[in-house]
Design brief:
Elements (H helix, E strand, L loop, with lengths): L2 H9 L2 E6 L6 E12 L2 E6 L1 H4 L5 E5 L11 E3 L4 E2 L5 H13 L15 E4 L7 E2 L2 E2 L4 E2 L2 E2 L3 E2 L11 E16 L2 E20 L2 E5 L17 E3 L5 E8 L5 E6 L4 H16 L1
Parallel strand pairs: 2-12
Antiparallel strand pairs: 1-2, 1-4, 2-3, 3-7, 4-5, 6-7, 8-11, 9-10, 13-14, 14-15, 15-18, 16-17, 17-18
Amino acid sequence: MNQQEVTNIIKSTVHIVMSEPVTLAPKGIGSGCVIRFMDKDILLTVAHVTDLDNAGTCIVTGQPVINNTTPMYSVGAMTYLDKFDITKYEEQLEILKTEPDRIEEIDFGLIDFSFTTLQHKVELLQQEIEFKEFKVPSSNKIIIETELDKKPEVETEYCFFGRIKPNYFKGTPMGDIFETQQVVYGGLKFIRQVGNYYEFELPNEIKDHADFKGTSGAPIMDSNGNVVSLVTHGYTGAKNIYGIALTDFKSGVEAMILTDDMNNKK
């Protein structure tokens, strides 16, 4: 992928912070994307990011810092297609670490997917990022136009972007500081579909889970800007990473939008 293609993938990814309602302290981070679907702006991410007790889902807006605070947009309640069990999810990942050949037997559960309609127009900005090879200029984030009908193809390379290795420093002279590193992973090759998940091969083995922590929910995209999946999981010592099969849940997103529209007319 060339510089412009990678830049578009970065601009298509939003950062998510799960915040305590009162203190606004971060309890977790993840990634996602905002799509335009059925004339609505929809936040897509994964359930194991947003399904945290006593935490609200917020999108980092990229707006200038105010009083040492990064402005965030609270999206309200998320929609789940089934109740997500984080304990079961983590147990199954532990099995895969030691018995990767059992991939077809593993039921990842309950659907690792969450989404919601953005109720207000919000300006999401991409702050300038300087990589070794090039610079991503500050600009608006991209709202992805999609019909949720694109499936990955074996001859196509895919890419995703996210923030990793979060550190939270409270009460510094500069206020509370939340630091992360930003990384792009390219060269993904689609292998197969397993249940409601797509399996992709990375160019290199995963050496440390921390190198991916925070990319959960990131859109997996091709060079033309088509989103086919969202990052769900991988494990140390493997070259494979998995993502939710978005086309499988198009009808679920449609149902949410139609239900919201009917409720708003009452």
